[in-house]
TrEMBL record:
Belongs to the NPC2 family. GO terms for molecular function: sterol binding. It comes from Candolleomyces eurysporus. GO terms for biological process: intracellular sterol transport. Residues 43-165 form the MD-2-related lipid-recognition domain. Residues 1-19 form the signal peptide. This is Phosphatidylglycerol/phosphatidylinositol transfer protein. Catalyzes the intermembrane transfer of phosphatidylglycerol and phosphatidylinositol. Monomer. The lineage of its organism: Eukaryota, Fungi, Dikarya, Basidiomycota, Agaricomycotina.
Length: 178
């Protein structure tokens, strides 16, 4: 099983949420509360309204995500405080109740490595992040929980995001089990 591929996918979702790869300014976005998007995945902005990064929406295609297919993630966010070199994100990934990844990512380094069109510093303003990644077929049929806590270069809270992704196969397509 290629756990590194799974971790890379989940890290992509996390780093997209902290405003690193492929930012393009878009018209002003409004702040919104938690949103549940589908039965197979969901997200929640667990940050405070005055934190530097505010997530408005996250969309994925296909919805729900499917192992072995390309996944496009679109994140609308507002940056309300400049993000500079030294910003980082702690990412924790759980498979059910078991922690399979706990890692700290340098936000600006991830942007450079992804050859993102916007590099640090990330200026104040609204953004739309769009990134496509190939999902490995080997993703276990399980539920993943991803917790992202982002921090500024001064170690102040920048972002909190919780994602849940359910790759469990429904034995009765088109029917809800519960």
């Amino acid at each position: 099983m290629r756990w590194t591929s799974i971790a890379a996918l989940l890290s992509l979702l996390a780093s997209s949420a902290v405003a690193t790869p492929l930012f393009t300014p878009e018209e002003q976005v409004a702040l919104a509360g938690p949103i549940r998007t589908a039965d197979k995945w969901s997200w929640k902005d667990c940050g405070e309204p005055d934190w530097p990064v505010q997530i408005e929406s996250i969309e994925v295609s296909p919805d729900p995500p499917q192992p072995g297919k390309d996944l496009t993630v679109k994140v609308k966010a507002s940056v309300i405080e400049r993000i500079a070199e030294g910003a980082y994100a702690d990412v924790e990934v759980k498979l059910g109740l078991v922690k399979i990844l706990e890692k700290t990512f340098d936000v600006c380094e991830e942007a450079r490595n992804a050859n993102a069109t916007v590099q640090c510093p990330v200026e104040v303003g609204p953004y739309l992040v769009e990134q496509t990644v190939a999902l490995p077929k080997e993703i276990p049929r399980a539920k993943f929980k991803v917790n992202v806590n982002g921090y500024t270069e001064e170690d102040e809270e920048m972002l909190c995001l919780n994602l849940e992704i359910d790759f469990m196969k429904n034995p009765f397509p088109g029917r809800k089990l519960w």
